[in-house]
Amino acid sequence: MNTSIALTEIDMLIRLGLGFLAGGIIGFERSSRRQVAGLRTHILIATGATLLMLLSIYVPQQINPERAGDPGRIAAQVVSGMGFLGAGAIIRLGNSIRGLTTAASLWFVAALGLAIGAGMFMVSGAAVALGLITLLFLQRIERRIFPTLRFKLLEIFYKSNDSSTKGALDIIKSSGIEIQSEDVDHGSRERGTKLRLLVRVPGNIDIAEIAKNIKASGQVKRVEIKEKF
């Protein structure tokens, strides 16, 4: 005989509110870092997952109170469906991929919503705390151990269209900067050669100083640094 306590409307409203709050906490952190999926996206996912878990518990109780049904069915579909949303947060940059942390946070808040909908309040609170620790504090430790890589677009303009780009490339490579892609436009004699480079710059390297060295290497008219991504 099933001895579980039936969900009331008050129970469901409380759980929806907690799902909203949990998604907001994680989403706020993502929005503060200008991620593609921010506050509203995380709130909607967490609240929606909570609602679906409540639905999967509530419907069997209404149809047959003696049988709890299988609440895991809808939960499994939520987990599978998150793959499509997560893929939308992932951006490919040359040989690198960005957005994996945001995609993981979307999957995480969906799991939070399911847990809150199932009434696992203490575990959900602990999961929110662990999620914030991972996103906020572990990032600082990670940056100290592994230098942050920034993506920059370097545009180097030469005085003539027959200028050699070897000097600039040698300076960049010897500085520890990794070249992702390279495009050379020799243009007309009046315009001169234009070298465009997508580079990965470690956090401990001053790209402005490298640009000064390139400009002083000869035949370089100017160097522009752009935030490509």
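(the above was protein one; protein two follows)
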Amino acid sequence: MSEHEHIETETGEEPVSELAEEEPVSELAEAERQRDEYLDSLQRLKAEFDNFRKRTAREHEAATARATESLLKELLPVLDDLERALVAAEAHEEAKLEEGVALVHRALADTLARHGLVQIETDGAFDPHVHEALLAQPVEDAEPGSVVEVLQKGYRLGDRVLRPARVVVAE
């Protein structure tokens, strides 16, 4: 009998040839190799993403710190002006005090405007996107829904409202 002839065992099953055993083993080994490659690739990608996330967070913190530092440097002269106004107030020089406070107000407003701060307009009709109505009262010679008094100024930075204007609206 030759090697390739059909042989039955006592149980009636055919013996598995050596060639048939090698094929599934090599397919399994190939699948395991691919799995390991994919796992390694995935782990590298995860590590790269974690590094990217950490680097981005550090860069964001650094940019925020630089922006804060820049703004504070511009506000220091305003602080100096306020200190001079307080010294003038101690000497009871009312005219100089009023002039000093006006100077400080103007310096602060100019600094904030250079950074994009804009006062919200309150002339005309009430706009719920930029105004906050605290009171509604009947007013002669005023159109209903119009702003008649500003209780607190509102400001925006670019298109974003930082604080709505708090107003009284005519009924």
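Reviewer note on protein two: The first strand starts at residue 117 and ends at 119.
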